[in-house]
Specification:
Helix content: under 10%
Strand content: 15-25%
Order of helices and strands: EEEE
Structural class: mainly beta
Strand order of the largest sheet: 1-2
Distance between the termini: 48 Å
Radius of gyration: 30 Å
Shape: flat
Length: 81
């Protein structure tokens, strides 16, 4: 090997500062009131993926994620998803 990197002869151990105790942290407040509850999460969209036909270049959505091959809705050719 042409250029070897010299290893350091010694490493210095630096002291790690102490973490504050949890009792020392103030409780989270908002104007001396309890924090409001989180809003409900929105519903997830139904799973789907896009496919493009190699023959006619049509782009369409496939809603069944278990399918590996679907017919093109425009030209009828088989499209791998």
């Amino acid at each position: 090997m042409a250029g070897t990197i010299p290893q350091p002869e010694a490493t210095l151990a630096l002291p790690i500062p102490a973490l504050p105790a949890l009792a020392d942290l103030p409780p989270p407040t908002l104007d001396d009131e309890a924090l409001p509850a989180l809003p409900a999460l929105p519903d997830l969209p139904p799973p789907s993926r896009e496919a493009v036909c190699g023959s006619c270049e049509a782009s369409f959505t496939v809603r069944d994620l278990t399918l590996r091959r679907v017919p093109c809705p425009i030209c009828g050719d088989s499209v791998e998803v």
